[in-house]
Write a structure and sequence with these properties.
By secondary structure, this protein is an alpha/beta fold. It has one domain: 3-Layer(aba) Sandwich (Rossmann fold), CATH 3.40.50.300. It is about 30% helix and about 20% strand. The chain has seven helices and ten strands. The strands form three sheets. The chain has a five-stranded parallel beta sheet, sandwiched between helices. It has a three-stranded antiparallel beta sheet with strand order 4-1-6, with no helix packed on it. Strands 2-3 form a two-stranded antiparallel ribbon. Strand 2 and strand 3 form a beta hairpin. It is globular. The termini are far apart. The N terminus is likely disordered. The structure holds adenosine-5'-triphosphate. The site of adenosine-5'-triphosphate (ATP) has 11 residues, from helix 1. It comes from Marinicella pacifica. This is Cytochrome c biogenesis ATP-binding export protein CcmA. One of its GO terms (molecular function) is ATP hydrolysis activity. Keywords: ATP-binding, Cytochrome c-type biogenesis, Membrane, Nucleotide-binding, Translocase, Transport.
Length: about 220
């Protein structure tokens, strides 16, 4: 898969995500000891921890799909401090693909919901980049698990968001897919993007990370 620059960052404004003394809970009990993170453009943070330690719960809270029981987060943007949701995109275990829509329709839907205009050739190029060239008119529900993951990840290429929030993004990808995704995230970081992701036992992504957050029992 080739890597074109489909995600240019035209704004060079500095933005910072601050997570301070943050904890999340399930069943009334905190899942992990308080965590702190200062993540800015050009950086990657990796969250690790045993199964059930709260990685997904934490990422959902950061994505605005859950909440913190203690502490919290702030988005420091020079112009629009309330714009976190405009500057971030989350790809979680539930991939957000619409099974009855084709791959192209899925991407067009995502672009439309985002308020961006994308031409079909841009959407096709994104599908091509993630290895779904030739699957433009296939229904998402008919894709394999790895292809569904690739379709979800292709949204990152068209939505032009600075902060990528990725829950186990390498899961279900084959070797070539993992290589592509590693290069894609590296490219994003090197071009002024930022990423917060969870990853089990992924040596090169841990080595690439600027911040490692290991969730410990409280
Ligand atoms: N509705 C719920 N009520 C009570 N506990 C819950 C609920 N939902 C999830 N949990 C628990 O919260 C904990 C954290 O789950 P979470 O999915 O965040 O962990 P994780 O670190 O992402 O795990 P994994 O590595 O297996 O993906 C788990 O122990 C889970 O059983």
């Amino acid at each position: 898969m080739s890597l074109n620059n489909l995600n240019p960052h035209t704004s060079l404004q500095s933005t910072i995500l601050h997570i301070s003394h943050a904890q999340c809970q399930k069943g009334g009990e905190p899942l992990f000891a308080p965590i702190n993170l200062r993540l800015e453009r050009g950086e990657m943070a990796v969250i690790s921890g045993r199964n059930g330690s709260g990685k997904t719960t934490l990422l959902e809270a950061v994505a605005g799909l859950g909440s913190f029981c203690e502490g919290g987060m702030e988005f420091d943007h020079p112009d629009s401090p309330d714009s976190w949701l405009q500057h971030s995109h989350y790809v979680g275990h539930f991939l957000g693909n619409k099974a009855s829509l084709t791959c192209l329709e899925n991407l067009n839907f995502a672009a439309t919901m985002n308020g961006s205009s994308s031409h079909e050739n841009q959407l096709s190029a994104a599908l091509d980049q993630v290895g779904l060239g030739g699957y433009e008119y296939h229904h998402a529900g008919d894709l394999s698990a790895g292809q569904k993951k690739r379709l979800a990840l292709s949204r990152l290429l068209i939505l032009n968001k600075t902060y990528w929030l990725l829950d186990e993004p390498f899961v279900n990808l084959d070797v070539a897919g993992c290589d592509w995704l590693f290069e894609c995230i590296s490219h994003h970081i090197n071009n002024g993007g930022a990423a917060l992701l969870t990853a089990h036992d992924n040596k090169r992504i841990h080595e690439k990370a600027d911040h490692l957050i290991h969730l410990e029992r409280p």
